[in-house]
Design a protein that fits this description.
The protein is of the alpha/beta class. Helix content is about 40%, strand content about 20%. The chain has 13 helices and 12 strands. β6 and β7 form a beta hairpin. The chain is globular and about 55 Å long. Magnesium ion (MG) binds next to α10.
Length: about 350
Amino acid sequence: MNKKIVVLAGDGIGPEVTAVAVEVLKAVGKRYHHEFTFEYELIGHASIEKTGSPFTDEALSKCKQADAILLGAVGLPMYDNNPSLKVRPEQGLLKIRKELGLFANLRPIKLFDELLDASSLKPEVIKGADILFFRELTGDIYFGTPRERRENGTVAVDTMIYAQYEIERIARMAFDAALTRRKKLCSVDKANVLECSRLWRETVQKISSEYPDIEVTHMFIDNAAMQLIKNPKQFDVILTGNMFGDILTDEAAQIAGSMGMLPSASVGKTVALYEPIHGSAPDIAGKGIANPMASVLSVALMLDISFGLKTESQAVINAVSQYLKDGFRTFDIADSKTSKDKILDTQSCGEKLISYLLIS
Ligand code: IPM
Ligand code: MG
C-alpha cells in the first residue's frame, strides 16, 4: 500500500509528538511492507509567523490531495488573554475542519488497565469504561453567525445554529458505530432550554426508528457531565453537538488516566484528519518530555479508518499496551510505583514503541 500523509505539526508540543507518530508509521510501513510518504505544512501560530495566516489556501489544497492528515496541536498562551489579536491559531483548525467538511469527530475513551491509578477517579469507577464520542464538528456556536461585538464593544453575540441535515448525518454515523459495539447510544443536549437542542433531539429520535436494535437514551448536558464521572460504564456511544462535545470529551479524558493518551479522528466526505485531543501544552513544549501516545494512537485510528489496515492498527495499540505493561511511562502518567529508570522522554518513548512493533 502506498499512502501520502500531510503532517501539520502546529504549535507547542505538536512537532515533538507528531515526530514520534511519524516514526511509528514508518516502522509500521517497514514491518508490513507499505510505503508512507510525508509532506509537512504549517498550521496555527507556526503558520501565522511565516505567512500571516493561521492556515493558508496552499496548505489546504495539499491536504485535499492527501490520503490522510496528521495534526499535532495549535495555540499558544500569547493569544489566550489577548482579545485584540484578530488572527488566532485556532482559526486554522476551524478552517481545516470546515473546508474539508470534517463533520464528525470520533473520540474513543478507553482506559488501559495499567493506567488505572493515573486517573484522579477511583479505579472501581473507571475500570472497564469504554466510550466512543461522536462530537459534531462543523456546526453549532463554533460557526454560527452573527458573531460580533455590539454597543461599543459592551455586548457580545455568538449564534448557536444547527440544520437538520447536519444532525442526521452524524447521528447515522453514530448509530452505525453503536451497531458494532454494545448497541447503546446516548444523545446529549439541552432540550429543556435550547431550540437547537430540541431540533437535535427530534432528529435523533427520528433516525433512531431506523435502528430498532439500538437502545437510545437522551440526556441533558448538565446531567451527562455528572453521570460521566459518577458512572462512566453506563455509556457506550455518546452523540452530541460541537460545544457540548468539546467540554465533555476533556472531562472524559480523566477516565482514560490522562489527556496525553487520547486520540481522535475527524471524518467527513473525503480525507480524514487525526489528532490528539490534548492541546499544545506550551508549559512543557521544547523540553522533550511530552507524552506522544495520543499522537501514536491517532496513527492507529488512521491505519484503521482511512487505510482499512486493521492488523497494523492493532499492532500499534498492542505496542502501546506492552510498553505500559513493562512499566514504561512519560512523566505525565508516572506515579510513585514507576521506577525512575522507566520514566522516558518523548524520543525514547518512541524508540521503545518501535522496538515492540518491530519484534512483535
Ligand atoms: C479541541 C480543541 C479545539 C476546539 C480548540 C483548540 C479550537 O479544544 O479540538 O477540542 O475547541 O474544538
Ligand atoms: Mg477541546
